Amino acid sequence: MSDFYQNGIVTTLHNLTNRTVEDLEAELLRYAKVRPMSLVLPSLYSELQGSALSTIVDHLASVPYLNEIVIGLDRASEDDYRHALEFFSRLPQHHRILWNDGPRLMALHQEIAAIGLAPTELGKGRNVWYCLGYVLASGRATSVALHDCDIVTYDRELLARLIYPVANPNFNYEFCKGYYARFAGGRLNGRVTRLLVTPLIRALKKVVGTNDYLDFMDSFRYPLSGEFSMRTDVISDIRIPSDWGLEIGSLSEMHRNYATNHLCQVDIADSYDHKHQDVSFDSEDGGLSKMSIDIAKALFRKLATHGVVFSEETFRTIKAAYFRIALDLVETYRNDAIINGLILDVHEEEKQVELFARNIINAGSHFLEYPMEAPFIPNWNRVISAMPDVLERFEAAVEADYQEFGQ
């Protein structure tokens, strides 16, 4: 059971009464007449082999209010794409699969790349960027939600609560971030949020001083959640980060573009679990280690746009402040786990804090060494300005793939 406390400067919408999903969906069905809704599912082909996505699709098949489902399919051959068409065919809603590795979409990608506006890295950021572009191209929705495809605790209530704030025409929210408790299997999860993001933001407040951006970021209960929703007019001007800073970068874009009274966060699940990344203690190129570096860089870059000047000495001070705050929080998390009958390994937690502390220095060094790094994919407004017919051609390419392989 949630509380009703409003923390920070971003509105929090709680789950106070466990309202039934049928009641929520009946209301959303009425709203769909004036605010048609889409869902974006960025997926690797490998996720079609697991049980989580199949369960998600089974739940989505019962959702009555969606006007469109857009699936971004990465790392897929022609046979994989054919299988994906069959896999998602049980969805009764209008749906299309973006075969990102197919010849038609790759050809369009190369044209966009030739003018310097295409994503340069493979990954979720690129997939999400193209999916949102397709939502613009199709014109079937005015509100869109996005969630991951590896949620093993999925229930369609998650989607209903996630999209409700931007679908209700009586609300003025342009963007909504989902949050939830991260525990499963008797363990407290959410390591990167608990052990990196929260203590790093608080350390930055100590070192560079409190500002509206840090207050904004500190308002989110789970800033790294992969679940959010928005009005489709947000899509044109949002820049999507291409690295592991996707979630932090997206929030930073919302802070840049909108007043906080147009943004909110909503409780979407009593518990949530998905596949877990390796920590990758021995490499900065993968797992939670790379994620921590990308997230730290995203925060440093945003603060630099606010006039914060960084140096090697600043980053050493940030690291020291972070380390003390994070270790104190480990004790807090341990006690929270114990009172709830959960397991938390203090030794493993502190090992991860030590890794993240090193990576704060590594992220700072990278930030100073590459001041011209541009991690954001250009927004769709800029692409449309350079290629006025890009959305029409994008939609036509997706439809041609469907017509050729899906019939």
TrEMBL record:
GO terms for molecular function: transferase activity. Keywords: Transferase. This is Glycosyltransferase involved in cell wall biogenesis. It comes from Mariprofundus ferrooxydans PV-1.
